[in-house]
Amino acid sequence: MLIHINPQLETPIYTQLANQIIEGIATGRLAPAEELPSVRSLAADLGINLHTVNKAYNYLKQEGFLQVHRQKGAIVSPTPMPAADEFYYQKLHEQLRPMVAESICRQVDEEEFLKLCRSLYQELVTQKEE
Amino acid sequence: MLIHINPQLETPIYTQLANQIIEGIATGRLAPAEELPSVRSLAADLGINLHTVNKAYNYLKQEGFLQVHRQKGAIVSPTPMPAADEFYYQKLHEQLRPMVAESICRQVDEEEFLKLCRSLYQELVTQKEE
Amino acid sequence: MLIHINPQLETPIYTQLANQIIEGIATGRLAPAEELPSVRSLAADLGINLHTVNKAYNYLKQEGFLQVHRQKGAIVSPTPMPAADEFYYQKLHEQLRPMVAESICRQVDEEEFLKLCRSLYQELVTQKEE
Amino acid sequence: MLIHINPQLETPIYTQLANQIIEGIATGRLAPAEELPSVRSLAADLGINLHTVNKAYNYLKQEGFLQVHRQKGAIVSPTPMPAADEFYYQKLHEQLRPMVAESICRQVDEEEFLKLCRSLYQELVTQKEE
DNA sequence: GTGGTCTAGACCACA
DNA sequence: GTGGTCTAGACCACT
Lengths: 130, 130, 130, 130
Description:
Four copies of one chain form a homotetramer. Helices cover 59% and strands 6% of the residues of chain A. The mean pLDDT of chain A is 93. In chain A, a hairpin with a 3-residue loop joins strand 1 (66-69) and strand 2 (73-76). Chain A is mainly alpha-helical. Chain A has five helices and two strands. Chain A has helices spanning 13-27, 39-46, 50-63, 86-105, 110-129; strands spanning 66-69, 73-76. In chain A, strands 1-2 form a two-stranded antiparallel ribbon. In chain A, helix 1 (13-27) packs across helix 3. Chains in contact: A-B, A-D, B-C, C-D. The interface between C and D is large, with 42 and 42 residues. Chain B binds a DNA duplex through residues 7, 12-14, 38-40, 48-52, 54-55, 57, 68-74. Chains A, B, C, D: This is DNA-binding transcriptional regulator YhcF (GntR family). Chains A, B, C, D: Residues 11-79 form the HTH gntR-type domain. Chains A, B, C, D: Keywords: DNA-binding, Transcription, Transcription regulation. Chains A, B, C, D: InterPro entries: Tscrpt_reg_HTH_GntR, WH-like_DNA-bd_sf, WH_DNA-bd_sf. Chains A, B, C, D: One of its GO terms (molecular function) is DNA binding.
């Protein structure tokens, strides 16, 4: 699975990394219980700092995406994620809110916005089914 | 129009402020050409520093939501925002992508996700039509 | 002679006004010794503050474009402006410098830049000759 | 590359700084992808506040001259600036207009004015070719 | 009274 | 050590 880091982006590198791993899990390119590269080798591959990879792994562990074993390295959580709860929906809501607001100002109508979401679901889910 | 700032949140205060003003514009609670409070008075009302308000106003000016007249204060841009272009859609896409990915992991299906978006459009647009 | 003020511009209103009067003199639309509107009437016409017009007139007086008589109002200086001296050239140089620098960065070549200057001379001088 | 700030001047310090960096890029004294000093060190060198340097850097980032990497500091944009578009020419036109007008009043003829522009192009471009 | 600029000093996230 | 953010207090140009 290819990971691409763009250090110029506003989003922190560790977040970019975590997001791409999450996407890998979502699409199935990273299977449950699959081993992830070691912190050291991934850092070397991506040309970033050890601490940065570590931070991403720890974040993902805390969120339940990974299990991190001290010596064995990190694996994708073998059990599925806990399903979305009220808090997750609220977080999603708060994140979407300003995006929808700005979209309305820019005359993006509801259907257009939904089309964008659908296309993302398509893109990510169909990879999973292949 | 009521604005509420939560200094505890991770999102910078000036971003919270800017987002709420954008939402005000989206819903029509802030009409085109409407005058906004001066940086000083708004800062005092919100209990934050005037530079923070200033930063929010300048961001919104740069994005085209506001016009800042040197001595008259800020007004909502009397002309509608430039419609969404390719870049805006791309930005939206990049923002939505990790949200959709995580949602898939948490077993939020497409319909559920779209429902959330629709409810936000409802909430914001119906205010506008009242 | 028509004067148009744009309060949204970054340039102060009094500067906009002064510049347009200078342009009027350059093009001959304002003849030597011609009377200018009173501070009061011009301010009313343009919908701006008395002080602002006053400031513009005083600036132009100080620079030698106008003569301001206490009761008779302002007139265009009946004698031609003092010719450009070393200081004026230096000021011009300092103003042009960053414009040329940025133009180089944006791949505006010298000929293109000169063409722009020529077209401005054309525009302003030919009015004078009509 | 030497930078000199004059706090007495009417032009804001951050603008003076930004202009000199732009000139550095135009002349090639600042090469694409070259690293700039950190805001702190440059501020110390110039004897100004780090926020002032920050403002200059952010302005240049926004205009596309620099890239600011969160933890690595600022670099000159490795890709050339977007070429001048209609808006840039219009901005240039508006800036040149009052300069040409005043020059006409001061009996600076077209050739004299163009000579000044040419000399600036000479000065800046020939540095580049060395 | 308005925003623009500058200074100063502080804390934080990131690498 | 880097930039990002926030606060505080000051002066200035403009209206």
